[in-house]
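Can't paste images in this forum, so I'm doing it all in text. The chain is below; anyone willing to post the predicted structure tokens underneath?
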Amino acid sequence: MVSDNYEIETIRQEIVTNHLEVTALIQDIQQCTGPLEFLNELNTEGRGKIAALRSSIDKLVNATELEINEKKKSELLLEIENHRAQMSTTMKAFRKANVISSCVIDKMSRGDLLASSEEQSNILRKRKDKKVLVDTSSQLTEKLSSISRHLAETTQRSADTLETLITSSEKVTGTERELVDQRQVIVQSGKLLGKYGRREITDKILLALAFAFFLACVGYILQKRLSWL
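Text version of the structure:
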């Protein structure tokens, strides 16, 4: 029940708002002195406001049909009739204002109120300039959004690149450790090979000395035997 009351109250406020907007627009039409394009714009806007007012009243009708309390339903139906009568009066005022403005514009087209026509042209131009500004603002917003998305993608790519560099750095560090270990192994192997080389030379010298000693012994024995003979 509270929800229904809130909905009906919201619709009532919507009806009041739409009616005030239509009334204000009728006053603008009454004060319109041209050009005809400006009056046509006001008419288009006015028909939209009237359609919104009619839609609000229809919403109230739908809400009334769902009302269970007969007393409250009767009050709402009476309220709806008042709104419809008020809208009918408003539409008549809307048409009358258009007729009056059309007559004024017709007179102005003959040169009676040229200055006022120029003023209305300025108002129309301001409306068009406002529309251009809105369109430009929308385009700028879209461009800023595109730039923001591009920056986000660039940031993500930079993060991916940084992660790749960190991984590569870790691999390079591991390779460097392996090279250092291999270098140590090579140095130790070189020392061992040098040691073995020196030992081989020593062995060759000893072998040569032993062979020389052997030859000396053989020579000595032969010399002794020859001397005996």
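The chain has a mean pLDDT of 80. Residues 114-228 form the longest helix (115 residues).
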